[in-house]
Amino acid sequence: MPLKAVLFDMDGVIVDTEPLHRKSYFKMFDEFGINVSEELFTSFTGKATLSVCQELITLFNLNYTPQELADKKRINFKYLFDNDSDFDLIPGVRNLIENYHHNGIKMILASSASMNTINWVFERFDLEKYFAGKISGADLKQSKPHPEIFELAAGMSGEDKNSCIVIEDSTNGIQAAYSADIFCVAYKSIHSENQKYDKAQKIISDYNEIIYETSTEWFK
C-alpha cells in the first residue's frame, strides 16, 4: 500500500521540550520531597504525566493525588515554556512537515503531552494548518507503551495502518508503534538518551532522510 499518513509524536520529535520537561519534573520532585534517580526518570520518557505521577505516588507512598503532582509539574512547565529563549522546533522538522503536506500526506499528532501543551506548541509555531488531527495520551485510558494512541491516530487519519508511518524518539513510543503493528521511524537525537530503537524499522538522525520522496519508496 502507498504511504498515506504520518503519525507524529511531539516531545523530542517536533519540539525540543525534553529539557523543559526534565526541569519541570525535577522541580516538582523537590517540591514534594522525593529523590528520583536518573534510571527511574529515564523510564518515564514517552509516558503521560498522570501515569508518571501515579507511579511516583505508589513508589514513594505519597499522600497526594496524581492530579496534584501533575498540576505542580504543569505550572513549572508553562513558566519555562513562556520564558526559555532556547525553546524551538527540532531542526528540519518544519521542512519535513511542509514536504508531507505539499505531497498530500495526512498528519496526525499523537503525543503523551496534555492537550493544553499540544495547543501551546501548535499556536506558538503555527502548526495547526498542517495537521488533520491531534490526540493527547493524557485523555486516554492507556499510556505508551500501550498501542492505543497510535491505533486511534491511524483511525483518525482514515487510512489503513499499513499505509501509515509513526515517527517516535522514545522506547515507550517505539514499543507502542510496534505493538500497533505500524511502521516506525525512530528519531535519534541528543535529547533522547538511553532509549532503545531495536523495534523500529528505520533509525534516523536527520529528517532529510525521510522526506516524502524517500519514505514513499518503502511502501511500493
TrEMBL record:
<dbReference type="Pfam" id="PF00702">
    <property type="entry name" value="Hydrolase"/>
</dbReference>
<dbReference type="GO" id="GO:0005524">
    <property type="term" value="F:ATP binding"/>
</dbReference>
<keyword id="KW-0067">ATP-binding</keyword>
<keyword id="KW-0547">Nucleotide-binding</keyword>
<dbReference type="InterPro" id="IPR036412">
    <property type="entry name" value="HAD-like_sf"/>
</dbReference>
<protein>
    <submittedName>
        <fullName>ABC transporter ATP-binding protein</fullName>
    </submittedName>
</protein>
<dbReference type="InterPro" id="IPR023198">
    <property type="entry name" value="PGP-like_dom2"/>
</dbReference>
<dbReference type="InterPro" id="IPR023214">
    <property type="entry name" value="HAD_sf"/>
</dbReference>
<dbReference type="InterPro" id="IPR006439">
    <property type="entry name" value="HAD-SF_hydro_IA"/>
</dbReference>
